[in-house]
């Protein structure tokens, strides 16, 4: 955008908020104007490593450097300092760092990492699982942060160390370690937060062997998170005004406030979330989470899928095509998967099964199976997993599922999703809805009026599959799941 475009008719520069979106594979930054429009942007890739089966790591300092590079690129397109900073971040991943230097003390354990599965199994008992679910709303699963925290603390020690999720890590680096807090919604993904009190649970901290006094303070989503200090690309004193986990930010950005509307984010994994207001009841197979905390808590019910974009990218590599369009085009060469099913349980299964012993399989192969059938099965695997979660959420009044994330560019995937759900799927017209959601949360802190909801609806997909065909497709998927989990169909 030209500098001239940054000026209003009155000759004044347009104020903006700097929205950071730190995801699993990319760090992004956006300059967002008070009307919600994007004035400038920047991005940088983030590497993911898989040193052993089930292990998923990232270099936390490299994540920070990527976010800095994205910010610099974004700021090159605007003039003046931002009025504030908002953050949308990947959740459940854990960083341990030196409180004086801010340097990471160990690799960041990614949210997909399952190395603590045995530890979770060692803790597991019917009584403990009930206590965990009733207190935190979550399952006793290695995806969540507390087992990862315990693992890192066992290796870096409990002396001069700070430990937290990615929002805590970024805020510490932005403020020269003056800030050591965690946003309440991110805290609700750790297995340590009491949903009733919205504070750390002494019982859960004791269960996982984590010193409650050593954890960051839990604060609202539009709290005073501190101000920038010691950065070469931003002046000191810019306030951090809004923080949300990426899935929560997408829910806020879509404008979902009732159980009639939910959202599905199609990223490396997938999150399906429906707001529930003050309802923090527990539902089998899915999580109860804190979507955000402002004047009052907004709870939500959510299912997390470990491998969605990861599954499609893996199949693309397997078939020798580029992820995205080329995989989509290959899948479109056949009318269906020809009986082939892919269950991408690379590190086990998340919601609603929570089975870390499940294994990835491709079933239904015949001599007539083509590359197109396998490509089609990859897209269907994503849609089936979303459908599994929607069924587990058990919300009869859900009318529309909003969709965001890179994979929504696939019209075939989105139509398949609507067909398997038997509900309309609406793809967001805003490709950066997580960043926008965090920015809008920041607006509430700055006192900026929230822009009117866009009247421009994204692409809408309506179910085109009849009930019998839908039931047959779902039965085929359930059979493949049973093989993956080594249980009777």
TrEMBL record:
GO molecular function ontology, one term from the record: kinase activity
Domain Carbohydrate kinase FGGY C-terminal residues, every copy: 263-443
Signal peptide region: none
UniProt KW keywords: ATP-binding, Kinase, Nucleotide-binding, Transferase
Pfam families, per the entry: FGGY_C, FGGY_N
SUPFAM superfamilies reported in the protein's UniProt record: Actin-like ATPase domain
Domain spans labelled Carbohydrate kinase FGGY N-terminal: 16-253
Cited Gene3D superfamilies: 3.30.420.40
PANTHER family: GLYCEROL KINASE, SUGAR KINASE
Entry's family note: Belongs to the FGGY kinase family.
Protein's name in the database: ATP:glycerol 3-phosphotransferase
């Amino acid at each position: 955008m030209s500098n001239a475009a940054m000026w209003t008719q009155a000759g004044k520069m347009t104020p903006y908020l700097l929205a950071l979106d730190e995801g699993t594979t990319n760090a992004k930054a956006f300059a967002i104007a008070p009307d919600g429009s994007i004035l400038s942007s920047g991005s940088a890739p983030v590497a993911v490593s898989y040193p052993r089966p089930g292990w998923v790591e990232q270099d936390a300092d490299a994540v920070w450097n990527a976010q800095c590079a994205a910010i610099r690129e974004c700021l090159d397109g605007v003039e003046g300092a931002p009025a504030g900073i908002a953050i949308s971040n990947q959740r459940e991943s854990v960083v341990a760092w030196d409180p004086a230097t801010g340097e990471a003390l160990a690799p960041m354990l990614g949210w997909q990492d399952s190395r603590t599965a045995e530890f979770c199994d060692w803790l597991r008992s019917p009584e403990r699982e009930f206590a965990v679910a009733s207190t935190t709303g979550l399952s006793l699963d290695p995806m969540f942060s507390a087992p990862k925290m315990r693992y890192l603390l066992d290796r870096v020690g409990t002396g001069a160390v700070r430990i937290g999720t990615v929002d805590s890590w970024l805020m510490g680096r932005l403020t020269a370690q003056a800030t050591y807090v965690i946003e309440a919604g991110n805290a609700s993904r750790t297995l340590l937060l009491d949903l009733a009190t919205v504070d750390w649970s002494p019982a859960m901290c004791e269960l996982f062997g984590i010193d409650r006094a050593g954890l960051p303070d839990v604060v609202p989503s539009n709290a005073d998170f501190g101000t920038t200090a010691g950065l070469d690309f931003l002046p000191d004193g810019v306030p951090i005004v809004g923080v949300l986990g990426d899935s929560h930010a997408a829910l806020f950005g879509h404008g979902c406030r009732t159980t009639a509307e939910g959202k599905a984010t199609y990223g490396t994994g997938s999150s399906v979330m429906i707001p529930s207001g003050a309802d923090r009841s527990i539902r089998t197979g899915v999580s109860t989470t804190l979507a955000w905390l402002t004047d009052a808590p907004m709870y939500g019910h959510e299912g997390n899928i470990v491998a969605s974009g990861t599954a499609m990218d893996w199949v693309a590599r397997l078939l020798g095509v580029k992820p995205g369009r080329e995989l989509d085009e290959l899948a479109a060469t056949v009318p269906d998967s020809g009986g082939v099913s892919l269950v991408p349980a690379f590190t086990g299964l998340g919601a609603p099964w929570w089975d870390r012993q499940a294994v990835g399989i491709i079933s239904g192969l015949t001599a007539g199976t083509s590359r197109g059938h396998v490509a089609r099965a990859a897209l269907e695997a994503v849609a089936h997993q979303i459908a599994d979660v929607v069924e587990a959420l058990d919300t009869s009044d859900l009318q529309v599922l909003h969709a965001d994330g890179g994979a929504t560019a696939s019209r075939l995937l989105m139509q398949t999703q609507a067909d398997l759900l038997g509900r309309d799927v609406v793809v967001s017209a805003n490709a950066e809805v997580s960043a926008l959601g965090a920015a809008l949360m920041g607006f509430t802190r700055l006192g900026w009026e929230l822009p009117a909801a866009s009247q421009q609806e994204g692409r809408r997909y309506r179910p085109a599959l009849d009930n019998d065909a839908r039931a047959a497709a779902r039965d085929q998927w359930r059979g493949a799941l049973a093989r993956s989990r080594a249980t009777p169909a």
